[in-house]
Backbone:
């Protein structure tokens, strides 16, 4: 009779379980050690931050997770402390103002616009969105790649109609 406990599959499964357990224990211990070290070195303002982080209710709408944000409004420094102020500051950071129109430079040679493009498909758009590198620098639209690729399934229909209209009307990005 074949003994399952001595089989190679059982041994691999056992080793995997042990490795997983060791990883989880190491992770938990590392987090605890980091927290202790941070608290031991904490000065007066940091102690109040630690107090606030440990005493807030878990259903406070994210207040405990997002600290006050320092940002610029024009040339002046500002601090966002309420959830409303934080959301406005984050929205301005992630979705910057529309870029100004660029004019064609005199004497520059530009390629001719593409003509006779075929019909675009949703699958092509999804493939391009999923293929983008998530943390590359922002393009002229100011939208981070991670935002586009993460919500590709939610925005695909809108993008499809935008691209379809652009191709139909011959609209191209000037630069």
Residues:
């Amino acid at each position: 009779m074949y003994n399952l406990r001595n089989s190679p599959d059982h041994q691999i499964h056992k080793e995997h379980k042990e490795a997983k357990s060791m990883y989880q224990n190491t992770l938990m211990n590392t987090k605890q050690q980091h927290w202790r070290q941070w608290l031991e070195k904490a000065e007066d303002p940091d102690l109040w931050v630690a107090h606030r982080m440990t005493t807030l209710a878990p259903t406070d709408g994210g207040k405990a997770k997002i600290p006050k944000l320092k940002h610029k409004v024009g040339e002046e420094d500002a601090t966002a402390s309420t959830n409303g102020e934080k959301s406005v500051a984050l929205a301005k950071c992630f979705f910057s103002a529309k870029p100004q129109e660029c004019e064609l430079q005199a004497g520059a040679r530009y390629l001719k616009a593409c003509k006779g493009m075929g019909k675009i498909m949703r699958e092509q758009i999804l493939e391009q969105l999923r293929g983008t590198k998530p943390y590359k620098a922002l393009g002229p639209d100011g939208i981070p790649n991670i935002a586009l690729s993460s919500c590709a399934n939610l925005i695909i229909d809108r993008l499809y109609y935008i691209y379809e209209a652009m191709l139909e009307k011959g609209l191209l990005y000037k630069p």
